[in-house]
Design goal:
Blueprint: H1 2-10, H2 12-27, H3 35-45, H4 57-69, H5 73-95, H6 101-112, H7 115-122, H8 127-146, H9 151-164, H10 171-183, H11 194-206, H12 208-216, H13 220-234, H14 240-254, H15 256-275, H16 282-289, H17 292-299, H18 313-326, H19 329-352, H20 366-379, E1 383-387, H21 392-400, E2 405-406, E3 432-439, H22 453-458, E4 459-472, E5 475-488
Parallel strand pairs: 1-2, 1-3
Antiparallel strand pairs: 3-5, 4-5
Helix pairs in contact: 1-2, 2-6, 3-4, 3-21, 4-5, 5-6, 5-7, 5-8, 6-18, 8-9, 8-18, 9-11, 10-16, 14-15, 15-18, 17-18, 20-21
């Protein structure tokens, strides 16, 4: 005990982070499967060079962990927790390059106290590996540029490529690098360095599987991620609710003190550049090069487009280091107090599920649904199961059931990566099916008074069964409609 106290006194920031990570680790067994966990685990079970909605890094990581430790929900969560813990360690190593040990400790506390770190520790998304490889990329680039260690150009190229293999927004790494070199008087000469271009070519080579998959599939993933969003933004219709919604999300993810620091130093540096035409010191400029394009770029879109809360996450890495230059002891204390209170509330929600979540984005009910669905399959042999909510119910049932589960492609709709498994739906012609449909806003346990019209187009007969009601602690939490469908018609 005395040794722990001595460590905490000597290394307060590290002690805080270790305590916070232990707290998060202890919550893992109480976290049920999230639809995102199931969907990206589905990636790993169907190995491919890339996937329709994202590159495959998160799927590969989950596949590796479950191969070693077994296919359990805890193992999926453990993978997210482990990768995020590596991100925290990498961040600290990066912070030490710019800040004193004391200031780097403050930056570490700012990072570790955020809710976005908790989200990444509990929930499988492409952002989990993205943040790790983004941090390693920036760290390697620092060593290559400021310490003139040539080998780190190689490591940077690999890390930037792996970041892109995690999520497409990683392309902003190369943008940030080239922007820094372009604006830096001291290091602009590196634009002609063969090491820079070797690094960039290597990063492109590492991303080759993603490009090759897209080439084989008519660039479906790139088009999915760009065309619809470009079309929406081109309409340039103001949506004040989008802007305030984005602000609210950032306040929650970063907590008010850290988000406020972001706004203060962003305004400070942009104002100085525009009014005095002066750039910040070289190392600060380096940090800003990996912060401004992502943070300011995406925030500037919020008045006309719904920017998802995780899009800005890569900017947090260098942004928090910059915040570490400004944060005061009193501000840090307030940040920690707010964080502790919010995390206690989160823990109570996770363990006791005090407030029912009217959404499919919840960790409650999926295993119970799978158990009920399996019983229905036993009573209806030679039937297949499908759902129609993009991926959530289908992915969750895929995780738990041994039999193959289909998505809305059964009804002629696009079904994300379910469309790219090579399934020949004509082989299902004439078969019976069970259609499971989540009712997130249910008011009672009764059957529906109508049958989905689309089911009647694709099946000769549709019969509604008793809905599946998920209960916990005597409370009815979730409801799923169930329909027994007879004689599938692939072409209605």
């Amino acid at each position: 005990m005395k040794s722990l106290q001595a460590f905490a006194q000597k290394h307060p920031a590290l002690a805080f982070i270790l305590a916070f990570q232990l707290f998060r680790f202890l919550l893992l067994p109480f976290m049920g499967l999230m639809p995102q966990d199931a969907y990206y685990h589905f990636y790993g079970e169907n190995l491919s060079l890339s996937y329709f909605d994202h590159p495959g890094m998160i799927g590969y990581i989950l596949r590796g962990f479950t191969l070693v430790f077994g296919k359990f929900v805890f193992v999926v969560k453990l993978a997210d927790f482990t990768v995020t813990s590596l991100t925290i360690w990498s961040f600290y190593q990066l912070a030490l390059k710019f800040l004193s040990k004391h200031r780097a400790g403050r930056a570490l506390v700012l990072l570790g106290s955020t809710l976005f770190i908790s989200i990444l520790s509990f929930n499988s998304t492409p952002d989990v590996p993205l943040l790790l490889f983004w941090t390693l990329s920036v760290l390697s680039l620092y060593c290559a540029i400021f310490e003139n260690k040539k080998i780190y150009w190689i490591w940077a190229g690999i890390a930037m490529g792996l970041a892109f293999d995690s999520k497409y927004t990683a392309v902003l790494l190369q943008f940030g690098l080239l922007s820094f070199l372009l604006f830096s008087n001291r290091y602009r000469k590196l634009l002609l360095s063969p090491w820079l271009w070797i690094s960039l070519l290597l990063s492109a080579a590492v991303t080759f599987p993603v490009w090759w998959w897209n080439y084989q599939h008519d660039f479906a993933s790139f088009l999915f991620q760009s065309s619809n969003r470009t079309s929406s933004m081109s309409k340039f219709k103001l949506h004040p609710n989008f802007f305030f919604g984005a602000l609210a999300h950032q306040l929650v993810l970063l907590l008010p003190i850290l988000f406020g620091l972001f706004l203060v130093f962003t305004w400070k540096y942009i104002k100085r550049a525009l009014t005095k035409l002066t750039l910040p010191p070289t190392k600060t400029l380096f940090l800003l090069a990996f912060f401004i394009p992502t943070f300011v770029g995406f925030m500037s879109l919020t008045p006309i487009y719904w920017v998802k809360l995780n899009w800005l996450m890569p900017s947090y890495i260098t942004g928090i280091i910059l915040a570490g230059m400004f944060v005061r002891k009193k501000q840090l204390k307030i940040q920690v107090i707010i964080s502790v209170v919010l995390h206690v509330l989160v823990a109570a929600q996770v363990v006791f599920y005090l407030v029912p979540i009217k959404s499919d984005d919840t960790w409650v009910g999926w295993e119970a649904l799978a158990t009920e669905t399996q019983e229905l399959l036993d009573k209806n042999p030679n039937s297949f199961v499908f759902s129609d909510d993009k991926y959530k119910t289908s992915a969750a049932l895929t995780f738990y059931l041994k039999d193959k589960v289909y998505a809305q492609n059964i009804l002629g709709k696009h079904a994300l990566h379910f469309d790219y498994l090579g399934d020949d739906l004509s082989t299902l012609a004439g078969k019976n099916a069970l259609f499971i449909d989540s009712d997130t806003r249910f008011k009672n346990s009764d059957k529906s008074d109508k049958t989905p019209e689309l089911l009647e187009k694709y099946f000769k007969k549709v019969e509604q069964l008793t809905p599946i009601i998920i209960e916990k602690n005597g409370k009815k939490l979730r409801k799923f409609w169930v329909y027994r469908c007879t004689h599938y018609l692939p072409t209605p």
